Every structure is written in C-alpha cells, then in structure tokens.
C-alpha cells in the first residue's frame, strides 16, 4: 500500500497518530450539499454517517480514560545486586465502556535489563521508555509483569507514565500523564567475609577494654569466693560444688565495640582525574559486607565516606548505632553514594575522629594507600584509636609503617581490563544523578 501511494506521489505521515482533521467536516459538508443539489439521498446519508462517526469517536475517546486507574508496584522495593524482582503494571477499568486499545509509555532506568515489555530509547538522558499495550472490557482489570535484573546498585526512579487511548476508528487519541514515581533501591553486593579474603573469626581483632567500663556477663575469666554484695546470678555453681563453698564468676571488663566503616570513594590519585567503576563497586561491596558482619555481631555500626549523595556536597555520615533500621540506613547510603570525592580520606578521618565514640574501631576501606593515609592512621593509632585497614590497592600496603594496625590486602584485578574501565569523574557523577528533588525518603 505504501509503495502504491508513493508511485501516485502520495505518502503516509507516520508522525500523525490521529486520522481526524478538519477536512472531515469539509468533505461531509460538500457531500451533504451535493446530495441536496442532485437529490441523491445516499450522499446525504453518507454525510450524516460521517458526522455521526466523528461525534461517536470523539465521545468514546473522551470517556476512554475516565475512571481508568493505572498503578505500578514492585514485588520488592529494595533488592541486592544480583537479584531479580518484578514490576507489576496494573490497569483497572471502572466503567462499563470498554477500552479497545490503550498504550502505556513509562520512563525507566536504562542501566537495568528488563523483560516482559518493549523497551525503546527515550529523549531523556539515562532513561529508556517502557511500552505496553492493553485491551480492557468494562469493569475489568489487566496486569503486565516485567522482570527487572538488579545488576547495578543505586536509587532508580520509575515514571512518570503516559497513557494513550482512543476510539475504535482511530480518529482521536486521548492522553493522560501519571506523575506518580516509584523508587527502586538496589543495595551493594554483600558477601561472606571468607569469600572476600578476610578471616571468619575475629576479622576486626579481639576487643578488650583498656579502661574497665563495664563487665561483660558472657565473658568469664575466672572465679573467686562469694561476697555478700554479689548477685546470685554471678554464682558459679559447678565451681562451688567442687570447692564446697560458694564461688562467684569473675567477668571480663569490656567496652562497647563500636565499629565505624570508613569508605574511600577515590580509586585514582588525584581523585579528580577520574574513577574506575568496577573498583569503586568492589570497595562499596566490601564496606557493605563489613557493616553486615558488625550488625550480625550486634555491635553498634556507623559509616563515614568521602563520596557524596547526588545533588549534595557533604560527605556521608551515619553515627554508630544498632537500632532496627541502622543497617538499612547504611545500605541505602552505600547504594546512593557517588564517585564525587569531597575531600581526601585522611582529612575526613582527622575531622570525624573526635566525633566518634571513645574505643570505636575504625575499619578503613580504600583502593589507595599512600604516605598521607599511612601517616594519618599512625596518628590515630597513637591517639588511642583502634584501626583496621583493608586495602584494595594493587601493591601490598607498607606493614612496616603500620605497626599496631590490623591490615588486610584484598587486591583488585589490574591490567588492561582495569585501565580500559577508567571513566572521567564528571561523566560517572552524571550517571548517578537523579531527577530534580534528589533522593526520596525511603
């Protein structure tokens, strides 16, 4: 058909979605007048039918999106890298008039592979267009399931969506925008510590209090004779039976083991020349794994990082705590952190150290271990801080200059693959930028 029209010097305008124009009324009027002049009732009837079709089509189109509800719901609003979740697109027609065709266009992130719907490029940067077509009879509901592979951490916005519907003849198209946005949070990958190359037992070292603050009821270091002021819960009954007199447990004095995960978002030095994305993701994954381990041990855990949240210029800071939502907050901060570095990690350590609890263990995770960082760690150690250094640099850290600091070396792969993955810092920061308004409150 298109070839035939082309030979006749005609063409199909694919940019027009509606087949109606003012020419319909002009043609109908001419046919009506011609029918009256020639006294041909068939032409008059044809003109009336044309006008009636246009009126019915217009009314149908105007009512097609009336009492029509669109929702999009995730099977899980939070997921980890490597998981697959489902997005349910649901349409409910709450009127007797059927919707013969309805097309949905919804903006979705381009970094997440999806299946179950057509995905097309869009005019928005870093976003694709999800397209789905529905047919609904009166008082019916239809669902479309879209599988989403969580391959990259981050905060991802889904929406807004635009609904298109029309009449059976294709004369008119009604459009409605649904401004509701849904956010999907993808946490960094969390791995068991042995898989990372860290010991399964006491990876942060033994913790004993330099100053007796309180006694740990689960750590018994010996027994002694019972004294009148002792609580009966401290009586060691087996030792009392052996010695034939009451014996009390001697408990170890400990401090509360606060853990502060310190993340260095810089992967190159100086940090402003760019970033190695796979190495940054590895650093974030190690930080998430350490935080998860500390939470499992029921230790208060916090986070500081010299990376920033989108549309922010302040370093990340989560004070140590062990509330029910503490780990979730840390994971969300790690999911959203960008490679934009606000200040060198050694400056951040000097600034934040006085604000952290006495006796807290600083777990420093960095892909760069240079003289400045080593000197800062030595100063903190001399000031009484407990330091654990986890290096992802290619070279082994200078342990001879890190006396009294527990050090682990987890080298990330280097070579041609790593060099080819270097990205300009501004480019990657733009990739992590979110729509106006920043990150939502999850």
Helices and strands: which structural class? alpha/beta
Through-space gap between termini: 53 Å
So what's the CATH class of the largest domain?
A: Alpha Beta
CATH T-level topology of the largest domain: Rossmann fold
Kindly provide the radius of gyration, computed on alpha-carbon positions and rounded to a whole number of angstroms: 33 Å
Kindly estimate the percentage of residues that lie in beta strands according to DSSP: 25-35%
What's the average pLDDT? 83
- Looking at the structure, what is the overall shape? elongated
Description:
With 442 residues, this protein is an alpha/beta fold. The chain has three domains: 1-187, Immunoglobulin-like (Sandwich), CATH 2.60.40.10; 193-204 and 256-431, 3-Layer(aba) Sandwich (Rossmann fold); 214-254, no CATH class. The chain is 27% helix and 31% strand. Helix 8 (345-352) packs parallel to helix 9 (371-382). The longest helix is centred in the N-terminal third of the chain and has 24 residues, at 41-64.
Compile the SSE list and pairings.
Blueprint: H1 2-7, H2 23-38, H3 41-64, E1 68-74, E2 78-80, E3 84-93, E4 99-109, E5 114-115, E6 118-121, E7 127-136, E8 141-149, E9 154-158, E10 161-166, E11 173-178, E12 182-187, H4 193-196, E13 214-225, H5 237-243, E14 247-254, E15 259-263, H6 277-296, E16 301-308, E17 315-321, H7 326-336, H8 345-352, E18 361-366, H9 371-382, E19 386-391, E20 406-409, H10 416-420, H11 425-431
Parallel strand pairs: 2-12, 15-16, 15-18, 18-19, 19-20
Antiparallel strand pairs: 1-3, 3-8, 4-7, 4-10, 5-8, 6-7, 9-12, 10-11, 13-14, 16-17
Helix pairs in contact: 2-3, 6-7, 8-9
